[in-house]
């Protein structure tokens, strides 16, 4: 990786891909608590960590090199990196940021060099974190976990350059030009668009575990393309809880050319025998499925809406009941 940096700074790297122009910022309250939870956003029918105090000030983050980079880079390379660090926008006090610099093909995938920036007033050592490469805004190209502790302790108000190798086996899209790319902390993303335009919004990004995110990525890969004008509800997961409620995750798919806003949604659930299991009217707040996209959501049927106590959920479906 150091050899790549030397070539990049000397102008010898011939296969460099377009540069990133965006920075991913992780607010202080997020990077001090990185554990995922098992909960997701949910809707029920109408009938039924430590932190650092941030200020408003902004800081220039000066170059800070890992000891290995300090030993192996010459003075010209160090000067170039110092100049590039000084060109970064001042960072809001208390935030951590990652700013992609260069991307080049690698025999195992793609190598991305970035500045990891510490905008806090004390040294920071990060742990394992998932990084994303996004293209065309929020469209996910790949995601991969890295041990950010390898960067060592980053001093206060400093920017540390590092290289990240994203391996081919994690690519979600192939045969695509990587223009307008962005390197991002997964924790900092407001939303993420998976294959077949399956959109995970911020609440889901924050609450899903890695295993659940991987599930939705695989689900997105297997979805049939949305047909023009098609709007439907696809059943994803269902489970009966000890308290008698039934939790379902549904995929709302909008193949129309206009955003779909839903305030109230009547739903009926049927099991493998074709028997009605539960029925309810769900109220949704600010729920929008953008045009030509799909959005997952959790719907919980309360116990008093369940009309079959021992349903066969080996096969099941949820649909809008006929009027």
SSE layout:
Elements: H1 2-10, E1 23-26, H2 28-31, E2 42-43, E3 58-59, E4 62-63, H3 67-72, H4 75-86, E5 91-92, E6 96-106, E7 109-118, E8 128-135, E9 139-147, E10 158-167, E11 181-185, E12 191-194, E13 198-201, H5 202-207, H6 210-222, E14 231-240, E15 246-254, E16 260-270, E17 276-289, E18 293-301, E19 317-319
Please provide a written account of the structure.
With 323 residues, this protein is an alpha+beta fold. It folds into two domains: 2-32 and 51-189, no CATH class; 227-319, Sandwich (Immunoglobulin-like). The chain is built from six helices and 19 strands. It has helices spanning 2-10, 28-31, 67-72, 75-86, 202-207, 210-222; strands at 23-26, 42-43, 58-59, 62-63, 91-92, 96-106, 109-118, 128-135, 139-147, 158-167, 181-185, 191-194, 198-201, 231-240, 246-254, 260-270, 276-289, 293-301, 317-319. A five-stranded mixed sheet has the order 1-6-7-10-4. A four-stranded mixed sheet has the order 2-18-15-14, with no helix packed on it. Strand 12 and strand 13 form a beta hairpin. It is elongated, with a radius of gyration of 23 Å. The N and C termini lie far apart (63 Å). 30% of the residues are buried.
Residue fraction in strands: 35-45%
Estimated radius of gyration: 23 Å
Total number of β-strand segments?
19
Major sheet attributes = 5 strands, mixed
Name the average pLDDT.
86
Q: Into how many domains do the coordinates divide?
A: 2
Q: Work out the helicity level.
A: 10-25%
* Largest beta sheet: strand ordering: 1-6-7-10-4
Spans of 5+ residues with little confidence (pLDDT < 50)? Answer: 32-41, 46-53
Question: How far do the termini sit from each other?
Answer: 63 Å
State the shape: elongated
Helix/strand/pairing category: alpha+beta
Query: What count of helical segments does DSSP give?
Result: 6
Order of helices and strands: HEHEEEHHEEEEEEEEEHHEEEEEE
């Amino acid at each position: 990786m150091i050899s790549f940096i030397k070539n990049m700074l000397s102008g010898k790297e011939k296969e460099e891909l377009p540069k990133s122009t965006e920075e991913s910022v992780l607010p202080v309250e997020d990077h001090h608590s990185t554990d995922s939870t098992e909960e997701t956003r949910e809707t029920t029918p109408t009938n039924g960590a430590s932190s650092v105090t941030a200020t408003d000030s902004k800081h220039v983050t000066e170059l800070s090199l890992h000891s290995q980079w300090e030993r192996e880079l010459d003075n010209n390379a160090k000067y170039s990196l110092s100049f590039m660090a000084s060109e970064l926008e001042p960072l809001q006090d208390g935030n951590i940021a990652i700013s992609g610099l260069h991307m080049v093909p690698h025999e195992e995938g793609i190598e991305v060099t970035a500045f990891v920036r510490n905008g806090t007033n004390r040294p920071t050592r990060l742990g394992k974190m998932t990084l994303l490469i996004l293209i065309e805004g929020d469209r996910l190209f790949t995601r991969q976990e890295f041990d950010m502790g390898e960067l060592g302790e980053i001093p206060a108000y400093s920017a540390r350059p590092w290289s990240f190798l994203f391996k081919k086996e994690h690519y979600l899209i192939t045969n695509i030009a990587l223009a307008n790319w962005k390197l991002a902390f997964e924790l900092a993303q407001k939303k993420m668009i998976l294959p077949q335009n399956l959109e995970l919004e911020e609440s889901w990004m924050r609450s899903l575990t890695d295993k659940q995110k991987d599930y939705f990525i695989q689900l997105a890969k297997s979805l049939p393309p949305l047909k023009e004008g098609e709007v439907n509800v696809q059943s994803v997961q269902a489970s009966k809880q000890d308290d008698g409620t039934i939790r379902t995750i549904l995929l709302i798919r909008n193949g129309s050319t206009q955003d779909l806003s839903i305030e109230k949604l009547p739903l009926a659930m049927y099991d493998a025998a074709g028997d009605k299991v539960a029925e309810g009217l769900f109220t949704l707040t600010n729920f929008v499925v953008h045009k030509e996209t799909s959005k997952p959501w959790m719907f919980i049927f309360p116990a008093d809406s369940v009309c079959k106590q021992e349903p066969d959920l080996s096969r099941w479906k949820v649909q809008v009941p006929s009027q």
